Amino acid sequence: MKPRVSMITLGVTDLQRSIAFYEAGLGLPRMDSPPEVAFFTLNGTWLGLYGRDDLAKDAGVDGASSGFAGFSLAHNVSSEHEVDQIMAQAAAAGARTTKAARKTDWGGYAGYFSDPDGYLWEIAHNPFFWVGPPDEPVGL
């Protein structure tokens, strides 16, 4: 298997609300898609939104769960200022800030928000992490 993630699909409880959050609120570019799903292009992968019960059925698992899902999505940016901008944009779009952006013990700057379905996003500036396209050399 080649090490890459082609798509991240989130099971959501209200598809239209989630589409509005990601498209209008965060400004992600939406692709044409059937009405029961939404796809957004990311830099090197896609984000999919699909009904939570439908996604569970498709995967052959029980869709009933609550609380912490055991993972977060991360978006690394090139400055602390950009972290603050994205955190504010997410809050304005209806996200709940779970951890305000601040200096980290690993030398960076990061905060967390949760989307309308509680999926956690970390917005981080890591001065030791390359944020350019994956096919470009690091060149720090």
From TrEMBL:
PROSITE patterns (alphabetical): VOC
Cross-referenced SUPFAM superfamilies: Glyoxalase/Bleomycin resistance protein/Dihydroxybiphenyl dioxygenase
Stored InterPro entries: Glyas_Bleomycin-R_OHBP_Dase, Glyas_Fos-R_dOase_dom, VOC_core
Pfam family of the protein (one): Glyoxalase
Record domain VOC: where: 4-126
Protein name stated in the entry: VOC family protein
